[in-house]
Amino acid sequence: MGPPGAGKGTQAKGIAEAYQIPAVSTGDIFRAISKADAATASELALQVKEIMTSGGYVSDEITNQIVAERLGQADAAEGFLLDGYPRTAGQVEALDAMLAANGQRLDGVISLEADQDELVARLLKRAEVEGRADDNEETIRKRQQVYAEQTADLLRIYSDRGLLVAVDGLGEIDEVSDRITDALDTHLNRE
Ligand code: ADP
């Protein structure tokens, strides 16, 4: 977990490789859905695209269903890393139910921390490099606001459960990756 621009997607790929588990990124899944070409674009694709461009959250109903389906696939049976999910209280609840139904549990929740100004700078830079439609200043501000309103408080839930692993997200990608694996290994050995 972490605010937009904290580096979740980048770090998720590294962690997935290190622990030999699939990274399940709701942002990537929604980007793929929204990119369906105009001729075949479904109602869902159009809806997701509009929401992402505005910086809001896709509904819990759609998001939870997509994650449940993804976690039901064979490659996730032995473990997985969630990137960008859960982001709302409703998603936390739905995830708890999914995991219980599958006889699984979370080993840890990584909180990637970074300061606001650095995040805006990173996202604007990414806009130049990747051309993501939601990386313009207006949408970035909206995404930060939505994160603060709906997601930031969820960290406390996981902290109360003893699952939170807080990591400083500032610095080189490899530095942050090392910090994450060190913190995670310490956390896992404590369990
Ligand atoms: P970032 O965290 O940098 O904004 P993501 O790629 O994780 O980037 O997410 C991009 C967008 O995808 C979000 O702004 C939101 O519209 C949508 N999205 C991703 N994950 C979720 C989620 N769990 N619930 C609702 N919407 C989501």
TrEMBL record:
<dbReference type="InterPro" id="IPR033690">
    <property type="entry name" value="Adenylat_kinase_CS"/>
</dbReference>
<feature type="binding site">
    <location>
        <position position="132"/>
    </location>
    <ligand>
        <name>AMP</name>
    </ligand>
</feature>
<dbReference type="InterPro" id="IPR000850">
    <property type="entry name" value="Adenylat/UMP-CMP_kin"/>
</dbReference>
<feature type="binding site">
    <location>
        <position position="171"/>
    </location>
    <ligand>
        <name>ATP</name>
    </ligand>
</feature>
<comment type="subunit">
    <text>Monomer.</text>
</comment>
<keyword id="KW-0808">Transferase</keyword>
<protein>
    <recommendedName>
        <fullName>Adenylate kinase</fullName>
        <ecNumber>2.7.4.3</ecNumber>
    </recommendedName>
</protein>
<comment type="similarity">
    <text>Belongs to the adenylate kinase family.</text>
</comment>
<keyword id="KW-0067">ATP-binding</keyword>
<feature type="binding site">
    <location>
        <begin position="84"/>
        <end position="87"/>
    </location>
    <ligand>
        <name>AMP</name>
    </ligand>
</feature>
<keyword id="KW-0547">Nucleotide-binding</keyword>
<keyword id="KW-0963">Cytoplasm</keyword>
<feature type="binding site">
    <location>
        <begin position="5"/>
        <end position="10"/>
    </location>
    <ligand>
        <name>ATP</name>
    </ligand>
</feature>
<comment type="pathway">
    <text>Purine metabolism; AMP biosynthesis via salvage pathway; AMP from ADP: step 1/1.</text>
</comment>
<dbReference type="GO" id="GO:0044209">
    <property type="term" value="P:AMP salvage"/>
</dbReference>
<dbReference type="InterPro" id="IPR027417">
    <property type="entry name" value="P-loop_NTPase"/>
</dbReference>
<dbReference type="GO" id="GO:0005737">
    <property type="term" value="C:cytoplasm"/>
</dbReference>
<comment type="function">
    <text>Catalyzes the reversible transfer of the terminal phosphate group between ATP and AMP. Plays an important role in cellular energy homeostasis and in adenine nucleotide metabolism.</text>
</comment>
<feature type="binding site">
    <location>
        <position position="31"/>
    </location>
    <ligand>
        <name>AMP</name>
    </ligand>
</feature>
<feature type="binding site">
    <location>
        <position position="26"/>
    </location>
    <ligand>
        <name>AMP</name>
    </ligand>
</feature>
<dbReference type="GO" id="GO:0005524">
    <property type="term" value="F:ATP binding"/>
</dbReference>
<feature type="binding site">
    <location>
        <begin position="56"/>
        <end position="58"/>
    </location>
    <ligand>
        <name>AMP</name>
    </ligand>
</feature>
<dbReference type="Pfam" id="PF00406">
    <property type="entry name" value="ADK"/>
</dbReference>
<feature type="binding site">
    <location>
        <position position="91"/>
    </location>
    <ligand>
        <name>AMP</name>
    </ligand>
</feature>
<feature type="binding site">
    <location>
        <position position="143"/>
    </location>
    <ligand>
        <name>AMP</name>
    </ligand>
</feature>
<keyword id="KW-0418">Kinase</keyword>
<feature type="binding site">
    <location>
        <position position="126"/>
    </location>
    <ligand>
        <name>ATP</name>
    </ligand>
</feature>
<keyword id="KW-0545">Nucleotide biosynthesis</keyword>
<dbReference type="GO" id="GO:0004017">
    <property type="term" value="F:AMP kinase activity"/>
</dbReference>
